[in-house]
Amino acid sequence: TSADRTFRPPATRMTVTSPSAQIGTPTYSLVVPVFNEEVVLPVLLHRLDQLLAKLDGPAEVIIVDDGSTDMTGIVAAGRAKDDPRYRYLALSRNFGHQVAITAGMERAAGAAVVVMDADLQDPPEVVLELAAKWREGYEIVYARRLSREGESRFKRWTAGLFYRLIRALTAIDIPADVGDFRLVDRKALDAFLAMPERDRFVRGMFSWMGFRQTAVPFHRLSRTLGQTKYGWSKMLRLAFDGIVGFSDIPLRFALWAGTGVSLFALAYGFYIAVRALYDPALVSGWASIVVLVSFLAGMNLLMTGIVGLYVGRIHTEVKKRPLYVVGRAVGFPEDEQDATS
Ligand code: UDP
Ligand code: MG
């Protein structure tokens, strides 16, 4: 919401020891959402250090703690205190992956912002390729999964189904096999932050805005440390947010299904009427009544549910609550006082 995103250089800090402290405006901001990732975090920080050394410009890392209840916060905040390239932003509770990403991007100061998972399924080295494409002039560079190692056949199948469904239902071109691992230019980032919607499907929002986009292929590794933080309910929620947020075809489906069922009922009624003329003893047919009534009841419930999805979305929008609440921020130059707390 704040229009003023100018990066204020850190105020003179007595305790600064690292030579890279005065990085000024970073070229790159890496946004990494974490939710109970204490097992991966030490390895991740090590790999990020290696990446930062190879990047062709100063970079900051924003670790967004999405309400972790393990040691994640202590480790990440400690790093943010000691190393001026690292920042730690803790949300006050678990707000979900998509909101955590948004929170990190709002605080990013870099000219290019990279979003990546913490679990090293998105290999940090790929960021170098994303950056190279950005240098060529692309404003959005997303990483496309060529393979998905170590994921169950069922997950790959449902993911494939989801991408096909959302591509069929929406007018915008949401690329298949692309998650949230991507680099966005400041211009695209500002457009993204100007989108106020509360149920966020980040990859769809970036596809929607256009700009010069390109893909970098990579092999998605399996998660070697820790466990997935995307349970079934979170995955379903993401799928519904994606479809409901970008398509109103499900709503119009009610119209077509209703028309179809009515036409069928009309034809069937006509058929019964004609049959009754020739067969005065006709009283059978309770089976067809039961089938028709339960079918119509099912249709009604389905349609009410679909409408409910959209009404629920309107409900969250109308409340106008903030997207997230920040619990703690460490290492951000603009609120230096936190660094000592
Ligand atoms: N994550 C998060 N909040 C959540 C769930 C996940 O910030 O509510 C983070 C998680 O720590 C990881 C990234 O989002 O960095 C992707 O999650 P995960 O690897 O569990 O998803 P998967 O790769 O299994 O789809
Ligand atoms: Mg993962």
TrEMBL record:
<dbReference type="GO" id="GO:0005886">
    <property type="term" value="C:plasma membrane"/>
</dbReference>
<dbReference type="Pfam" id="PF00535">
    <property type="entry name" value="Glycos_transf_2"/>
</dbReference>
<keyword id="KW-1003">Cell membrane</keyword>
<keyword id="KW-1133">Transmembrane helix</keyword>
<dbReference type="InterPro" id="IPR001173">
    <property type="entry name" value="Glyco_trans_2-like"/>
</dbReference>
<dbReference type="InterPro" id="IPR029044">
    <property type="entry name" value="Nucleotide-diphossugar_trans"/>
</dbReference>
<feature type="domain" description="Glycosyltransferase 2-like">
    <location>
        <begin position="29"/>
        <end position="190"/>
    </location>
</feature>
<comment type="similarity">
    <text>Belongs to the glycosyltransferase 2 family. GtrB subfamily.</text>
</comment>
<feature type="region of interest" description="Disordered">
    <location>
        <begin position="1"/>
        <end position="19"/>
    </location>
</feature>
<keyword id="KW-0808">Transferase</keyword>
<feature type="transmembrane region" description="Helical">
    <location>
        <begin position="286"/>
        <end position="311"/>
    </location>
</feature>
<feature type="compositionally biased region" description="Basic and acidic residues">
    <location>
        <begin position="1"/>
        <end position="7"/>
    </location>
</feature>
<feature type="transmembrane region" description="Helical">
    <location>
        <begin position="253"/>
        <end position="274"/>
    </location>
</feature>
<keyword id="KW-0328">Glycosyltransferase</keyword>
<protein>
    <submittedName>
        <fullName>Glycosyltransferase</fullName>
    </submittedName>
</protein>
<dbReference type="GO" id="GO:0016757">
    <property type="term" value="F:glycosyltransferase activity"/>
</dbReference>
<keyword id="KW-0812">Transmembrane</keyword>
<dbReference type="InterPro" id="IPR050256">
    <property type="entry name" value="Glycosyltransferase_2"/>
</dbReference>
<keyword id="KW-0472">Membrane</keyword>
